[in-house]
Design goal:
The chain is mainly alpha-helical. It folds into 2 domains: 1-115, no CATH class; 116-201, no CATH class. Helix content is 72%, strand content 5%. Strands 1-2 form a two-stranded antiparallel sheet. Helix 1 runs parallel beside helix 4 (87-95), helix 3 packs across helix 6 and helix 5 packs parallel to helix 8 (183-200). The N and C termini lie far apart (49 Å). Its main location: membrane.
Length: 201
C-alpha cells in the first residue's frame, strides 16, 4: 500500500510540474510579460507543442537521474517543489522570461543494495539528466535536417539549452556535482552542450 501511494504521489508531482512548466514556457514564448503584452491566442496554440517538447526535455531529464540512481542501488523518486514551482508561471507573466525550479529527484543517502564508489555514483547520476538532453538535442537536429521543420529546431534548442544550463558548475545544478567528482569528464560534456547551443543559435 505504501509503495503504491508513493508511486501515485510521484506521478502527480510529475504531471503537475509538467503542466506548470508547459504553461510557463508557452507564456514566455508569447510576449514580454503583462507590461509588454502577452499574445494569449499564441499561448493556447503553443501549449501542445511545448508539452511534447518538455515531455522529453524535462521528464526525460528527471527520469534519467532516477533510473541511473536506481540501477546503482539507491532509492530515488521525483518530488515537486510546490514552493518554487509557481515561479515558472509568475516570472513569464511579469517579466516575459522563465525561471523554473519545479522539483528534483530525491535520492537516498545510502545504498539499498550493491556496492560502489560514492564519487563515481554521484557523477553518473548527475550526468544522466544533461546527457539525456544532449541526446534529445542531437535527435532534434537530425530530424530538423531531414524534415526541415522548425518544430524540431525548437525541440533541439530547448534540450540543448537545458543541458548547458544544468551543466553549469553552480550549486545545486548537476554541473557542480559533476565538476566536484570528475572534472575531466565534466569538461567535454559541457563543451558538447555549448557547441550544440552555438550551432542552433
Amino acid at each position: 500500500m505504501f509503495d503504491r501511494e508513493v508511486r501515485r504521489r510521484e506521478l502527480v508531482d510529475m504531471a503537475v510540474s509538467l503542466a506548470v512548466l508547459t504553461l510557463g514556457f508557452s507564456i514566455s514564448l508569447s510576449g514580454r510579460g503583462i507590461a509588454g503584452g502577452i499574445n494569449w491566442a499564441k499561448v493556447i496554440y503553443l501549449l501542445p507543442y511545448t508539452a511534447f517538447v518538455l515531455l522529453f526535455a524535462f521528464l526525460g531529464h528527471e527520469l534519467a537521474h532516477r533510473q541511473v540512481a536506481r540501477r546503482l542501488g539507491y532509492y530515488a523518486m521525483y518530488q515537486a517543489d510546490y514552493t518554487l514551482l509557481p515561479l515558472a508561471v509568475i516570472f513569464p507573466l511579469l517579466f516575459g522570461f522563465i525561471f523554473a525550479a519545479p522539483g528534483a529527484v530525491v535520492i537516498s543517502p545510502f545504498r539499498l543494495y550493491g556496492r560502489g564508489d560514492e564519487r563515481r555514483d554521484v557523477f553518473f547520476i548527475s550526468a544522466a539528466g544533461p546527457l539525456s538532453n544532449i541526446a534529445f538535442a542531437v535527435l532534434g537536429i537530425a530530424l530538423f535536417e531531414t524534415i526541415a521543420s522548425q518544430f524540431w529546431w525548437f525541440f533541439a534548442y530547448i534540450n540543448a539549452w537545458l543541458a548547458l544550463f544544468n551543466l553549469l558548475p553552480i550549486p545545486p545544478l548537476d554541473g557542480s556535482k559533476m565538476m566536484r567528482t570528475n572534472p575531466a569528464m565534466w569538461l567535454p560534456i559541457i563543451a558538447v552542450a555549448a557547441l550544440l547551443v552555438l550551432w542552433l543559435w
